[in-house]
TrEMBL record:
Superkingdom of origin: Bacteria
Pfam families per record: MCPsignal
Record domain Methyl-accepting transducer: where: 29-242
SUPFAM superfamilies with a match to the protein in the record: Methyl-accepting chemotaxis protein (MCP) signaling domain
InterPro entries from the UniProt entry: Chemotax_Me-accpt_rcpt, MCPsignal_dom
Keyword Transit peptide carried by entry: no
Keyword annotations of the record: Transducer
Stated family: Belongs to the methyl-accepting chemotaxis (MCP) protein family.
Organism: Paraburkholderia denitrificans
Annotated protein name in UniProt: Methyl-accepting chemotaxis protein
Amino acid sequence: MGGAALAVLMALAVLGVHWRARARWRREGEAQDAAHAAALAKAEAQANERLGACAHEIDTLAAQNDALRAELAQRKSAADALDAALYAERARCEAAQQRAAGIADEAARLRHMSATFERWHEQMISLMAQNHDMHQKNQELSSIVSHVLIVSLNASIEAARAGAAGRGFSIVAGEVRTLATRSQELSKSYRDSLHRNDLVTAATFQDIQAGGKMIAASLASVESLSTQLRTQLAQAHAEALA
């Protein structure tokens, strides 16, 4: 009996030790579980914090991306507007260049016409000088014809005084008087033609002078317009380069 009791006591002692060990292990396990739970909670909190920061960063990046897209769209719109403006300016410059070329051609044509009118002006001056010289020569011819008439009359008178002896001379004097009369009529007709020619020449000379002045004024206007157009083209080119 004593040995059995001792065995029971020893068994109870071992069982107590075992229960105490299990209790200690349980407490240590609970402590470890609590530590693991705290660590897990901490890690989860840190992960949530990081996720929140990442979400905020993603929202910020998305906002920046939207802003960049809006800026790119605005810049594209501005670039399209600039391209349209450049195209319009290029078209306007081309039209202005064509206009300048047309003005240059018109100026060259006017210069040619002006040179032609100047040549006509000089020719009309020479023609008027020739007409004046022809008037003087006709006056000299008319004076000579008048003297011939006077001489023929005097010869006829002297032949009449001479009687039969001067009959032949009287016939010659009559023929001379007839020729002188015809010459006088031709001289008068020539003088009238010269006067009409003077009127036509003077009118033509005035028309040429007026036409030359009009062409000179037109040429000055065209050259002024060409200068203004070249200035505008230079300014447009400078603005395009700027």
